[in-house]
Amino acid sequence: xxxxxxxxxxGIVVALASEASALASRAAKPDDITALPEGAALYLSxxxxxxxxxxxxxxxxxxxxxxxxxxxxxxxxxxxxxxTLFCPERxxxxxxxxxxxxxxxxxxxxxRLTGIATPLHAxxxxxxxxxxxLTATAKRAAHQQHAALAVDMESAAxxxxxxxxxxxxxxxxxxxxxxxxxxxxxxNGSIDAWGRPRPLRLMxxxxxxxxxxxxxxxxxxxxxxxxxxxxxAAETAGPALGWHR
Length: 245
Hints:
- This protein is an alpha/beta fold.
- It has helices at residues 17-21, 49-61, 103-113, 136-146, 155-165, 185-188, 199-208, 216-237; strands at residues 10-14, 33-35, 41-44, 66-75, 85-86, 90-93, 98-100, 120-121, 125-128, 150-152, 169-175.
- A hairpin with a 4-residue loop joins β6 (90-93) and β7 (98-100).
């Protein structure tokens, strides 16, 4: 464990290395706890509910007094555009389990963020799924079925741990892909669990589908805008994301 001492404040689950860089001043190690100021800490979990649950349990065991999820999400509705911050009131998994975010914490977080230039959406539901939704058709179908505004793969798993441990829970996401955006499966399969490129797989994907090279500027631009929004939110909300015991 990289903290060197028990966590005294928020334990934050982040799936991707690029998300962690928006919070931590030094590189976070995958599958490990990294200390933040104000007694907070993050866990760079990798993608998916199993990894997120493991991270949340590790943060809680290390003394976190609250749990949060921070990072990017995909839009399921035209309401949310690339670079918009989303602080949902409710998290839903694809099996129908629902979790409510801590009302007082979420309200305080939203109040802190109202002064920044980045758009903020503070109502609605976030859907968590086990596998990524890569097409506009899949995203619109999920919106119709669940009435959720955005989708990720980690929040419900962390919410479940928070509920089991009796800890406050909040989510702050920035929208990366819009509802009409498709993510080529070959490119999605060319990154590791922490969102880092796998060079050999990427080269093989380009060899099989040269047209994929043309997708990179759009995807890079989307991720840059979302990461910029996360960095602005972290600077404004503080490393504990506005939580105080």
